[in-house]
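Q: Here's a chain of 517 amino acids. Please give me its 3D structure as tokens.
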Amino acid sequence: MNNLKKSILSLMTIVTCICCLNAQLHIVADKFDATYEAGELMHFLVTSPTTGTANYTIRFDQRSPILVEGTIDLVAGRTTRIPFQEFEPSFVLCRVTQFGSSDVAAAAFSPYDIAPYEDEPADFDAFWDSMKAQLASIPMDTQITQYSNTNLSTTYQINMANIEGRRVYGYMTIPNGNGPFPATLVMPPFGSGPNHTKPENYVAEQTGMIVFSLSIHNALPDVGDNNAYQPNHYDQKEGNYYKYGLLGAVRAIDYIYSRPEFDGTNMMVMGVSQGGGLSISVAGLDQRIKVMINSISALCQHSGLRYGKTAGHPYFIFKSRTENGTPTHEANTVEATKYYDAMNFAKRFKGTSLTYMSYEDVTCPPGTVFAANNQLQNSKVIFHRREEGHDSPDYWLGRFDFIRAQFPTTQNAPVGTNTNTGYQIVASADMTTALNTPTTISATITNNTIPQSYPVYWEKVSGPGGVQFSNAEQVNTTTQFDTAGEYLLRITATDRDFPEGEAKWVSLVDYVKVVVE
């Protein structure tokens, strides 16, 4: 009997602990997707297991000024509403704190309209053309040694010459079997220790691709670089440390193109965090890239803090203020970092893309990721997570579906029998039409090759006049234009059909360019 009582008490203790864990301070936006039109009134909904006063702040990100702050009186088990409006396209974070416990929720306002705060430099292309020409003038001087192998692939450690006497280091894995193979370049997340950059034989074996895993530092990746991220004169366009990483990527692509195992056409780049921002940048820097995958990306919207708005990692303006503190240094930093902003590279990429973003990410804020993504004006898929921080759990397997869709030969990869091809959207080809003439536009939307009827919305992104849609919420519709000129139209489809409790959704976006004569 005593044992029975002990078992019951233990069970009650476990149940009580679970209830305590579940009954925590919680805040969430009052729409499932936490997305509103600029100027729309929304509410953050706050619940707590404890009655008492709580403090809250609303700001664009944790480094920007506070927009609103106040106190609310919470009653245990009841919902308290915090109203808020934001009139410019942006993301905000609301943090509530009560008795040492805190929670945060995000809200987006017209996120597809978030734009750069600064114009790009007039000599952006000329600068990078000169950097690539400098690299091309240096012999590749490739040093390659076999590093490891499995029964499915062989991995080599590679180093090559970079500019200014530096070297490019990384690992290249080639799947066993009959090529030629497509290839992908994997850009690294932030960090520099030993083995921070590792062989990606798992990816090569899952996809049947050549995989080059790149380090951006000047040391063997299994040793690490004690001088990583130095020198970094980010107030000078020639002095930014990421110059070496971007040119290193170009050199790695050069080398992949020299390999007989490569199919000579199908080249991709992908990465997470710092690697995500670098992937966007490489895709715009090197026109040989056909497909780009990025997740929770850094290196976007550097100048945001200058306007009291959100800015991306590595927070160059914040660093200028804390490390230097002079207006001249900050002004120079704003100008110089434009050459390393993924937004400016993104508009130059003409391929397809897959993006993962997390709305509560305080390391790489989603407003900065959207700013760059909005410059990608070709077929793209976006995975959204409402309550994830600097993480993207969908990326690690979901990217393989996208790769199989873009490069069909990867469906014959040496590992597994998964043939899912995930989400795809293909809109009408660019066209020319006459003024005030009904013009049909349409899109094909699939998931694993199966046609889908997700909710859609057509809208004008740019153009000199008005556009009338016969039905903007139909995938096949007609348009009329009242002014001659060039227009860019966008279709967005959304899949929200995920298991209850998963606060995520997928957007499929494509564009049609219409010239009206």
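Q: Can you summarize the key feature?
A: Residues 423-516 form a domain with the Immunoglobulin-like fold (CATH 2.60.40.10).
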